[in-house]
Fold this protein.
Amino acid sequence: MTHDIKQIQSIRLRGLLPAVFDNAPGRERFAASRVMLGDVVLERGKSYCLNASSGTGKTSLCGFIYGSRRDYVGEILFNDSDARSLSVEQWCQLRRRHIAFLPQELGLFAELSVMDNIQLKNRLTDTKTPTQIMQMLDRLDVADLADRLAGQISVGQQQRVALVRALCQPFDFILLDEPVSHLDAFNNQLCADLIVEEAARYCAAIVFTSVGNSLSVKTPVIPLNL
Amino acid sequence: MIRKLLKRNISAWQIAGYSVATLAGVVIVMSAVQFYIDLGGALGVKSGSGTNLVSPRNMVISKPVGLGNTLTGSAPSFDADEIADIEAQPWVSGVSAFQASNFGVWAGVDFGGRSLSSAMFFESIPDRLVDASIRGFDFDPESPLIPIVISKDYLALYNFGFATSGGMPVVSEGIISSIPLRVTLSGNGRRDTFDARIVGFSNWINTICVPQSFMDWAHDIYGSGIAAEPSRLIVEVSDPSDPAVGKYMSHNNYIVAGPEDTSSRATYLLRIVSASVAAVGAVITLLALFILVLSLFLLIQKNGRSIAGLLLLGYSPAEVSRYYMMLVGVINTAVLLLSVLAVLLISGLWTPTVLALGASPASPWAAIAVGAALLAAITIINCFIIRRMVANYF
């Protein structure tokens, strides 16, 4: 892979399995999975829903793709390049320009304000103006919380703030790990619409996980059972 | 914003503890260096403007004159076995002999309306040992002018003894160097007079020294052909302050001429004291380094969640490390500045002693360079550790 990361057209998951299950009891549980131990290609411009019950490796899979976890066997290919061959600098570039990620635990800094949390990402990527950020917050009904400390707002509000932060970058893929688990149907729809709109701006793929409360995107979604 | 996140859990007490410990260590090391340079310079200083004729690293040794020498009329000399034994010492890098003239020498000068003349002698030493700062110390048989280096003591003897009591004018080194001398050489049935000039003064070697080339030339023409054993040797030593040198000289009852006899011991002691003090300072600095490393470990561990969160957003380990590196850099720069200030103040304690020894205090740049190098090394080590620790969260 060259030093600069090119636009990611596809992410191929081949023979992927959390290392803890490799040659260990419990491996058979993935026999019916399309993703684990399978050969799946996620393509730019499409939407995918990773549907499975708790503890089946959804969060692990997001970590593997985003490079925050490396304890897996098998291959993850960005275009045709193995994720394991990426340097630290290339991973940073990938996280700033190519893959946006909303982790399940949100990753907000409780001691910073909502706006500071968002600007921490936005200043790194230089993607949105303060006005655009406020508009996004407003669309998700959390604009009035901009100056509040992130640790002082509810989990549902944090989830929406974290989503706005995740959208403050260009991306080819957006990974959303249970993005609406703490939201009602109305806010779910607000989030889904914003995500679809932003993904369309970059012709990006949406990959989200769900354990029941699924993101209400109106575009066709390809279900992938874990 | 990164700073706002990462400055959490910084303990002012830990930083203060490290700063004070490092300051103490670095100040001790720098003071030891400055002390050594100042006092070392003062112990090695020469009064007046004379030269050393040979480097102070070379020792001029002779034997004491005994009753036997008086009775036989022979000078105490070194035989081949003794020279070989000296050459065999591990701290000796070369041994050369003073070559004495074995022809008649008569020197005269017209000075202050009077003529002075006296029988005298010449000696020579190998040209390579002659101090390069002595100008014009060479001889050309085609236009024979004999350059001479005399002992500074001879001039003092004249000025303060002979001139005062004999009503002769007192002369400076500059004046006497400009006075032409007449030197008459005799031997082998020949007798010739040449011009001569004093080109330098030797501080601690009592001799009337001429270039080796002149001595060889004169020996061929006027010499008796009798080669006498040398009565004085120039011993080239690697370190005059080595205690083994003094021990050997003392054991063989050799007389050492020159500044080494007393100052080399003092220099040796100075070196021991300075090295011991510097070692204590270095140990304190090392312990301070451990304090900083442990503090950084603790700090980075406490802020691990924030660091991991920043890396997850796309910040590189280098960007996240930068804040802690800057922190270390600022602290160490402040410590260096305070150390320099402290050393300048502390060195004032021995400045009167240095001045009393007739020397000037040395420039503090060497001590500052040592302190800067020490703190630069600490900073580099810490930056490396910070980078490694932050990268672990990636």
Q: What stands out?
A: The beta strands of chain A are 10-18, 39-43, 47-51, 72-78, 81-82, 99-102, 173-176, 205-210, 221-225.
